[in-house]
Structure formats: structure tokens, C-alpha cells
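Q&A FORM
Asked by: J.P.
Topic: structure of Flavin reductase (DIM6/NTAB) family NADH-FMN oxidoreductase RutF

PROVIDED:
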Amino acid sequence: MFYRPEDGHNLPHNPFNAIVTPRPIGWISTRDSAGRDNLAPYSFFNGVAYTPPQVMFASTGVKDDVDGTKDSVANIRETGVFCVNVVEYAVRDAMNASSATLPHETDEFAHAGIEKAACDVIDCARVANAPASLECRMTQIVQIEGPANFAVFGEVIGVHMRDDCIVDGRFDVTTYQPLSRLGYRDYTFVREVFELARPDD
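REPLIED BY: S.T.
REPLY: Here is the structure written out as C-alpha cells.
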């Protein structure tokens, strides 16, 4: 099968999300200029550089009570900071609950029953028991093709790691089983890992 996205795929559901998988989930916490906290999961998320460490996430779509985007991007525009919280399999239901479309002033931490903690170097809340949280200073917001598609880039300026996730000096993902997004309504999680040495190692 071949199709041009501009012509449509003639399938019951868009296959693009199922092709680009698995995708890590960035559970993005922000705070607006009035001090109201927000938490939302984004599966268009990844690390993009080592030195300095940088991440990005993309927001696609718009809310009626926010000007041209969603709460996360609107808050980051106001404050210039955000936190990326790693999602583990154990909190999949809370993560899903925080994805609900709610009024701008709603605190998704409270809505989903998630304990929050203060970040250390930015004015933002984080998920208290997350395996890891990355405090970020926004470096740029880039509008990409489409009416409400924004890529948000940030430099990681503070890193939290849960102590039980550090094994023999390494951050061990098998201790918490990171949740990943597949296509449609499908998810998966990491239970096993293996190593491959690069040819020039």
C-alpha cells in the first residue's frame, strides 16, 4: 500500500501514529503566570542533544479557552519554563486521566490524584514520585506546518532521579518500566533490555 497524506489513506484510522512507534511520553508540567499548575502527557516527545542536554515536545491542536494552542504551550510562553516527568507503567491510569480536556484553570495534578512536589531551580511543580523529572528552561517555540502545531525546545537545567531507579551507578529503566505510546489507543512498556556495542567502540 502507498498513499499521499494529502490525499488520505482510506483506512478506518490514521496509520501514521502506528508507524512512528514506540514513542516515549513526556508528562509535561507547567505553571501559568497566575500560579495555576497544569499537567499533560505528550507522545511527540524526545531528547534532542547531549551537551547541553535538551528535549523537545510537540503540541498539536487547540483548546477553546486558550489562544491558538493548548495549556502547556500557553503557560510556557508566559513563564519560559517547564518540567518533563517520566511516566512509568504503574501510573498509566493517572497519566491517562491527566490527558482530559479540562478548563484552563483546572489543576490536573488534583484531577488525576497525582502528588506534586516543587522543582528546585524553576518555578514549577513536578510529579513527586516520578522515576525522573527534567527541569527545563524553554529555548524556543517553533510553529511547524499546520494551524496549531508547535514544537517546544528546552534546555535541561535540573535533573531528579528516584533513588530506587539507580542500580550499580546506572539509571535502570527496568526498575520502573517506562510507558510508551503506540498507534491508535495502544501503549506498551519496557520490561527487557539488551546491549549492542557500536562497531567503533
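FOLLOW-UP: The first strand starts at residue 23 and ends at 24.
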